[in-house]
Amino acid sequence: MFFVDESIQHSLGYICVGFVYCKDAPDEHIAAALRKARLTPGESEYKSGGRMATSPELHLLRREISEIVLDHCKLGVYIAPTSERQVLLAGTVAAARSMVITNGLPAPQPLYVDQGITGEPEPHPNDPIELRSGCDSKAVLGIQLADYAAYHCSYLLKCALEGSSKVVRVESVPHPMSDEDVDLAWMIRTATRRNFFTECRDPRTIDGDDWFFRVAGFGSFLSSGLSEHHRQLAKKTFDEMYLGCVW
Questions:
Q1: What angle do CA 77, 155, 168 make, to 5 degrees?
Q2: What is the pLDDT of residue 206?
Q3: pLDDT per position as a tens digit, 58-90
Q4: What confidence score (pLDDT) does residue 165 get?
């Protein structure tokens, strides 16, 4: 099943739609994470853009949601211009159909889409997805994972467009870069890179350091309405992922 949410960057002119694929329903994991943060499932929810500076519970919730995504989910993205907002569902559904077909997933796949993504998708014979749009993220808990994915994928593109990234101190122990100041975009990319849908390659055929795996067409999709500038930077950000050792 897929869960979908979006991150809109009005000032930069793009929308990042995040897809999270789960083989099994993630509700129990998410509900447990919310309870650890002293929140009530169905009444409260994880929001990536929420202020967490003075809330240890919300910091804990973010870590728990991150672990669920990285341990149990595959990721995909669809990048569109903000002008596409009113019809965003069409491109979102088209990308989801491609992910199901290209990655050989069982069909039809349920596609749970956040209520903020609207429009009219093109009809499709023998549709590989079962569309369930207008979902409330407090009721359909998996949307909260898609919120995490959309926010962090959007941050990667934001940094590419702005040419800069926040620097953070790594405080996790153990960690190869504990107590070091590290580029946040690099940390996000390093953490999520193995979760994207990618091409299949036989590791036995890989020579040297050629561990770049194609994401475009498997887990990364771009709207035809993107400007050339946005398109090139989106391709640079999401066309492929390096899956070799970085430590």
A1: 140
A2: 80
A3: 889 999 999 999 999 999 999 999 999 999 999
A4: 86
User: What is the spatial distance between Cα 37 and Cα 67, in angstroms, rounded to a whole number?
Assistant: 14
Nearest to 27 by CA among 112, 130, 115: 112
Cα distances (Å, whole numbers) of residue 43 to 38, 60, 112, 136, 213: 12, 18, 19, 11, 40
Q: What is the pLDDT of residues 205-245, one digit of tens each?
A: 888 778 899 999 999 999 999 999 999 999 999 999 988 87
If DSSP codes are grouped into helix, strand and coil, which group holds residue 14?
Answer: strand
Question: Is 245 in a helix, a strand, or coil?
Answer: coil
Coil, strand or helix at 123: coil
User: CA–CA separation, 218 vs 123, rounded Å?
Assistant: 21
Cis amide leading into 106 (omega within 30): no
Cα(155)–Cα(130) distance, integer angstroms: 29
DSSP string, 74-89: EEEEEEEEGGGGGGHH
Instruction: Please give the backbone phi and psi of residue 154, each rounded to the nearest 5 degrees, phi first.
Output: -65, -35
Cβ pair 36, 61 in contact under 8 A: yes
Give the Cα separation of 46 and 56 in Å (integer).
Answer: 14
> Parallel, antiparallel, or unpaired for β 220-222 and 14-22?
unpaired
Residue 123: CB atoms within 10 A of its CB come to 6
Q: Does the structure show a pLDDT above 80 at 173?
A: no
Q: Write the DSSP assignment of 156-209 as a string of letters.
A: HHHHHHHT---EEE---SS-TTTT-EEEHHHHHHHHHGGGB------GGG--TT
